[in-house]
Amino acid sequence: MQTISLKIGNKLISQMKKTIDSNGYSTKTEFIREAIRDKIREKEKEMAIRRLEELKGFAKNKHVTDEDLHKTGEKVARKYAKKFGIDLD
After folding, report:
1. What is the extent of the structural domain holding 18?
2. Are 32 and 15 in contact (CB under 8 A)?
């Protein structure tokens, strides 16, 4: 594990402390780690959506039927849902 040092403004520290206290975090470190994990998941989802949009545009230019596109979208959605721990059934 690595140590990271950072400076945070007083207003943000105050907001962070309120959130920590009201949500049962035991330490600032625990809160920051979770915030980082959440941000990484958010960015991964954004990248997945962009990739799906690119594939959708590519498929339409190749004369793929709407049914083919729907099946492919469903397959990809299930793959990403599984990756992010989302139950679709």
Report:
1. 11-83
2. no
- What are the tokens at 63? 């004369």
6: in domain? no
User: From CA 5, how far away is CA 52, in angstroms rounded?
Assistant: 37
Domains held by the chain: number: 1
Amino acid at 57: G
In this structure, the number of other CB atoms found within 10 A of the CB of residue 60 comes to 11
Structure tokens at 77: 């959605």
Which two tokens mark 44?
């991964």
Reported as a single tens digit per residue, the pLDDT across 15-48 is: 999 999 999 999 999 999 999 999 999 999 888 8
Whole-model pTM over 0.90: no
Helical residues (DSSP H) of 24-64, grouped into ranges: 28-61
CA angle 3, 9, 12 (to 5 degrees): 95
